Amino acid sequence: LYNQGGKFSADHEYRTAPGAALQTKNLITDIKLRYVEVPLTMKLMTSEIGYIRYYGQIGFSAAFNIRAKADQEVPVYDVSGVYTTGFENLTDEDIKDNINLFKAGLIVGGGLEFNFSGNTSLLAGITYNNSFTNVLKDVEYNGKKAKAYNDYIELTVGVFF
Known about the structure:
The chain has 161 residues and is mainly beta. 0% of the residues lie in helices and 71% in strands. The chain is built from no helices and nine strands. Strands 1, 2, 3, 4, 5, 6 and 9 form a seven-stranded antiparallel sheet that branches. A two-stranded antiparallel sheet has the order 7-8. The model has no long low-confidence stretch (mean pLDDT 93).
């Protein structure tokens, strides 16, 4: 279970009335996503060199979206639906219909285990998760399909007993 999010902005061109000058406003959206991830990886480890064992990790991840919320600024239109009368800030709006349920990715990482006493070891590693699939579903902007990918770097620190 993990949370991801990000912000994006887009320029919105609008008119306030017929014949009014065309104006532009930068609208910001803050997205908050929650996933359940099922990683399938292989960990390759060296023999102990001094007190240290090094490892590499590679595999795939399958993640399922269980929550999608956004804080966003949206235009408010007049009754004709053509002219903008103002802007409204929406908080924790459900955007699950715009987010793909499934996300697949490649996992690549490495690190080390330092044995400092018998069976007790310290683990330190870094992992990169590269998303294959577009997070957005049926989202268009200026006539083009919008794309977003959830890539991330994960730091791992732990102690084995």
